[in-house]
Automatic annotation (TrEMBL):
Family classification: Belongs to the flavoredoxin family.
Gene3D superfamilies recorded: Electron Transport, Fmn-binding Protein, Chain A
Highest taxon of the lineage: Bacteria
Keywords: Flavoprotein
Cleaved signal peptide residues: none
SMART domains: Flavin_Reduct (SM00903)
Pfam families with a match to the protein in the record: Flavin_Reduct (PF01613)
Originating organism: Lacrimispora xylanolytica
Domain Flavin reductase like: 12-148
Cofactor(s) the record lists: FMN
Protein name in the entry: Flavin reductase family protein
Length: 186
């Protein structure tokens, strides 16, 4: 057997998508970049995010019951990182991006981002120092320039990903089609 190194209780899950979570806090748009988000179910469309209880953005999600998940292309890495360097308590993040809203005018979405997902909270769970919000997806929007044949194109989007070594990464090359490439081993 190959020698394995014990890294302890370390959540070495790859990759972590970097999402900008948008919420209205005290009447203004606010965003927080996080890596703790994922899919709970495809049908029905349900996602989760986990965010620090101390986060200013969490306050807005609790008060409004809605948030947005925004995925930026790698070309926006500096802007995304800046959003995580300061708190909305101290700096007005409503000036960091251009925001637009759904009909309800609650959860700000970021125009510059390739993908915008509007979410409505269905449950909130406190886990240690985090809030985990589980939410129904109200709608998903993809900027046309990031689509091919009317569908989101991962290569064009080139989302920012994060690794637990505190490094940002971009995606590599496509390896194959899911539930197909392994057929030759059957």
């Amino acid at each position: 057997m190959e020698n394995k190194i014990n890294c302890g209780k370390y959540p070495l899950i790859y990759p972590l998508p970097i999402a900008l979570i948008g919420a209205k806090v005290d009447g203004k748009a606010n965003v927080a970049p996080i890596g703790n988000c994922g899919i709970v179910s495809v049908e029905p469309a349900v996602v989760y995010i986990s965010i620090s209880k101390q986060s200013y953005t969490a306050k807005g999600i609790i008060n409004e019951g809605e948030f947005s998940i925004n995925f930026a292309p790698c070309t926006m890495i500096k802007e995304v990182d800046r959003a995580g360097l300061v708190s909305g308590r101290d700096v007005d993040k409503s000036t960091f991006f251009h925001y637009f809203y759904n009909e309800g005018n609650i959860a700000p979405m970021i125009e510059e981002c390739a993908v915008n997902i509007l979410c409505k909270v269905i449950s909130t769970t406190e886990i240690y120092n985090q809030y985990m919000f589980v939410a129904d997806i109200d709608k998903t929007l993809v900027s046309e320039k990031y689509c091919t044949n009317g569908y989101a194109d991962t290569k064009k989007i080139n989302p920012i990903i994060y690794a637990m070594d505190n490094q940002y990464w971009s995606l590599g090359e496509r390896l194959g089609t899911g539930f197909d490439i392994g057929k030759e081993l059957l």
